[in-house]
Backbone:
C-alpha cells in the first residue's frame, strides 16, 4: 500500500553519481503517489455528502500542505547548517538525512491516519 515510501527512501541512500538509480526510485515513488491520489478521490465520495464534498476536499488538501511544510522545515535545518559549516556533515549526507526524515514522517503520518 505504501510502496511509494520505499521508492522515496531509496532516494535517501543514493550517493552522488548514481543518477540512473535515482531516476528509477523517483519513478516508483511518483507512481505510488499518483495511485494514492486516486484512492483519496475514491474515498471522498463515501466520506461525505455532495453538499460538503468540496469543503472536506479542501480540508484534506490543506492538512496535507501543512503536513508537508513541517517536515520540510525540519529537513532544511541540517542542510543549511551543513552548508554553512555549523555542523560537521557533508552536504550530500545532509540531503540523504533529509530524505530519510521525510520518509519516516510520512510513514508515521500514513500509519496514524
Residues:
Amino acid at each position: 500500500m505504501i510502496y511509494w515510501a520505499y521508492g522515496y527512501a531509496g532516494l535517501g541512500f543514493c550517493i552522488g553519481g548514481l543518477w540512473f538509480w535515482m531516476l528509477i526510485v523517483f519513478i516508483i515513488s511518483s507512481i505510488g503517489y499518483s495511485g494514492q491520489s486516486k484512492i483519496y478521490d475514491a474515498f471522498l465520495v463515501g466520506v461525505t455528502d455532495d453538499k460538503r464534498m468540496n469543503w472536506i476536499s479542501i480540508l484534506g488538501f490543506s492538512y496535507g500542505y501543512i503536513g508537508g511544510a513541517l517536515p520540510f522545515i525540519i529537513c532544511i535545518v541540517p542542510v543549511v547548517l551543513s552548508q554553512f559549516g555549523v555542523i560537521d556533515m557533508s552536504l550530500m549526507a545532509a540531503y540523504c538525512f533529509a530524505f530519510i526524515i521525510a520518509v519516516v514522517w510520512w510513514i508515521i503520518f500514513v500509519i496514524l491516519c
Residues 3-112 form one domain. The radius of gyration is 17 Å.
